[in-house]
Amino acid sequence: MAELMCPLAGTARTRNLAIRVETLMALSRVFSAGGEKLEQTLAGLIEAYRKWLKEKAGDQKEDRELLDQLLKVQAEDDKKRWVYEFNRLFIGPQSPPAPPYESVYRHGERQVMQESTLDVRRWYRSQGLSLAGQSNEPDDFIATELEFAAYLLTQALKREQRNQPKKAEAYIENYNAFCQEHLAAWLPGFVKALSASAREPFYLALGEIIQRVVVPVR
User: Fold this and answer.
1) Whole-Å CA distances, 74 to 4, 62, 162
2) Domain extents for the chain?
3) How far apart are CA 95 and CA 110, in angstroms?
4) Is residue 102 a contact partner of residue 145, using CB atoms and an 8 Å limit?
5) Which residues contact 67 (CB under 8 A, 6 or more apart)?
6) SUPFAM superfamilies of this UniProt entry (predicted)?
């Protein structure tokens, strides 16, 4: 991390933002890399979630139980089950029980590329962003939305490090608005579908972690 240029309160804030960014990106990579890369992305998620727990105040019993669950899964020998379950839950070939796309949960038709997808695209464009290359995924793919949330907090973090609190706050407000308008509007439904359908403990823990981590900045 770059040298911090803020007073003590600012230092704590930059640390909190940095950990949020790392955890959001770790969750994003779980979905973007796919089932074949789960061994690597799980390791990144465990490292990020450990830091998130150290930063979190209050009762951490359930959070630590989730971390223990991730570590238990990481120690398993038969990791092929993870790949199969990832594909069954999120990809197919049959209709996946927990599609990782916002529009599926917002419009009651289990279809992608709905109005919410276009609004997400408008959010990306408002920050001068677009999907890289010829992506096969819609704009409201969970990995992309989580990466965008991490991007907004990364920009806030940079402004905090430059001692530009007003500019940092503007990015945090954008992050909170994006959470409210999009992530918070569909992730509970996604996690519910995931919890009802998952046959492997890793995916149950993943849903719980998403619920805890993807929250507004207070």
Assistant:
1) 35, 19, 38
2) 8-213
3) 10
4) yes
5) 46, 49, 50, 53
6) TorD-like
2 phi and psi, to 5 degrees?
Answer: -65, 160
CATH classification of 8-213 is 1.10.3480.10, yes or no? yes
Q: Are 156 and 172 in contact (CB under 8 A)?
A: yes
pLDDT band (50, 70, 90) for residue 113: low
Residue 36 bridge partners (DSSP): none
Place of tokens 């464009």: 125
- Please state, in angstroms and rounded to a whole number, the distance separating the CA atoms of residues 209 and 202: 10
Q: What angle do CA 10, 16, 18 make, to 5 degrees?
A: 100
* 33-70 tens-digit pLDDT: 999 999 999 999 999 999 999 887 666 888 899 999 99
The terminus-to-terminus CA distance of the chain in angstroms comes to: 23
Supply the pTM of this predicted model. Answer: 0.91
Of 214, 211, 213, 215, the residue nearest 195 (C-alpha): 211
* Residue recorded with tokens 């849903």: 207
% of the chain surpassing 90 pLDDT: 70
Under 8 Å between Cβ of 94 and 84:
no
In contact, 165 and 46? CB cutoff 8 Å: no
Write the DSSP symbol of residue 114. -
